[in-house]
Write a structure and sequence with these properties.
By secondary structure, the protein is an alpha+beta fold. It is 50% helix and 10% strand.
Length: 392
């Protein structure tokens, strides 16, 4: 193969045309609380649904650093669309790293072509914890077909998904409390909406509650039966926290850029005021800290993966949790300060030229998206284990 025949490297930035399209629809999909059909269609058409799919299956073969960079770009245009895409990529990573070779050969090329949008059904009725699943995947050990019945209080984009990764209780012994992950297509299931979606922010993610019933083949299990915890440590949790943090940072970064361009015109504040300068500095420092920690955490995970090292280690769990905690709280604090600085007519108005009001509402969900209360406690417990205090 000549250099000219070599595949192009995967993109690490979203093209301006794609961001323009997302931005054009961002206000309407937020107001109407509707799924961003036009934006997702563009992501499908341009190959971005297969960003993490290896090139051997027709995907872009992108890296985690590239995923983070693109998620930031997309979120600056429409945070709801960016989060939907990022969570799809999270599910793709689970398949790439843990699905059987047959399942990968069947599904990954279809994801790469834009045919399949994957949704996550991993929130249990007992709370946001990944392992709090009440329903059991039923079927005798010698049966090929398994019955699936699942109630999920939050499924991002679930009514529009082509396939799902679903957590279900039951491993080799269906009576135990182990959790399995299973791939199910829309054709496998009867899907019923059981709640409306009319939230404060993230309105276009269409993350309402669903009831899923159907059957799946046993070979649709992803990873070993009952061992979803391993998948969660290796893929689901780190990818989720990297991608979410990138989306939150991208939205806040774009908001600050817009605010700085409007200061002295639309935003009538004195640039020479020490108070204004201090407020801007505090906003900038918060975003700089999130960016630095996001980059370091992403590099750490990619390095461990490249060396074939396990991600199931207390210090990495602490770093991944810290990223989510810091990103969710500091980006929201930064946008809160932007709203205060921009004032009532610009910072608090849904019709202002800078969408601070929308970004403020969207980022309020960050601390609730896998509850920070749970993560603070978990990180405290992990910190008692990591007595050498291995800082990132």
């Amino acid at each position: 193969m000549t250099e000219a025949d070599s595949p192009a490297p995967p993109p690490t930035a979203a093209p301006a045309s794609l961001m323009e399209l997302l931005g054009r629809h961002a206000r309407d999909v937020d107001r109407e609380a509707r799924f961003p059909i036009e934006s997702m269609a563009a992501l499908r058409t341009n190959g971005y649904m297969g960003y993490l799919v290896p090139t051997e299956y027709g995907g872009m073969g992108g890296s985690l650093n590239g995923l983070v960079s693109i998620a930031k770009d997309l979120s600056g245009a429409c945070m709801s669309t960016a989060l939907i895409w990022a969570m799809h990529c999270q599910q793709v990573d689970c398949l790439v790293r843990h699905a059987s070779s047959d399942l990968k050969a069947e599904v990954l090329p279809r994801i790469a072509s834009g045919e399949i949008y994957l949704a996550s059904v991993t929130t249990g009725t007992g709370g946001s914890h990944l392992m709090s699943v009440d329903e059991t995947l039923t079927g005798a050990p010698d049966e090929e077909i398994l019955a699936l019945g699942r109630t999920a209080p939050v499924v991002t984009g679930g009514e529009y998904a082509d396939a799902f990764l679903v957590t279900m209780r039951g491993g080799a012994d269906p009576s135990d409390q182990a959790v399995s992950l299973v791939y199910a297509t829309r054709a496998d299931l009867t899907i019923r909406r059981i709640g409306d979606w009319n939230p404060l922010g993230m309105r276009a993610t269409a993350s309402g509650a669903l009831r899923l019933d159907g059957t799946v083949r046993r070979d649709r299990l992803v990873g070993q039966p009952g061992r979803f915890r391993e998948i969660s440590y290796d893929s689901m949790i780190p990818l989720g926290h990297l991608a979410w943090s990138a989306c939150w940072l991208g939205a806040a970064q774009k908001a600050l850029s817009g605010l700085l361009q409007q200061i002295g015109t639309t935003v009538p504040v004195d640039r020479s005021s020490p108070l204004v300068q201090e407020r801007i500095a505090r906003i900038r420092v918060d975003l700089e800290l999130v960016h630095a920690y996001l980059e370091r955490t992403c590099n750490e995970i990619e390095s461990l993966r490249e060396r074939g090292r396990s991600l199931n280690r207390p210090d990495l769990h602490i770093h991944v949790n810290t990223l989510k905690l810091a990103a969710s709280e500091l980006t929201f604090r930064a946008v809160d300060r932007m709203v205060q600085l921009a004032g009532l007519s610009v910072g608090y108005s849904a019709d202002a030229p800078i969408p601070l009001e929308r970004v403020f509402r969207d980022l309020r969900s960050a601390a609730l998206n896998y509850s920070n209360d749970r993560l603070w406690t978990a990180t405290g417990i992990l910190s008692l284990v990591d007595r050498s205090v291995r800082l990132l």
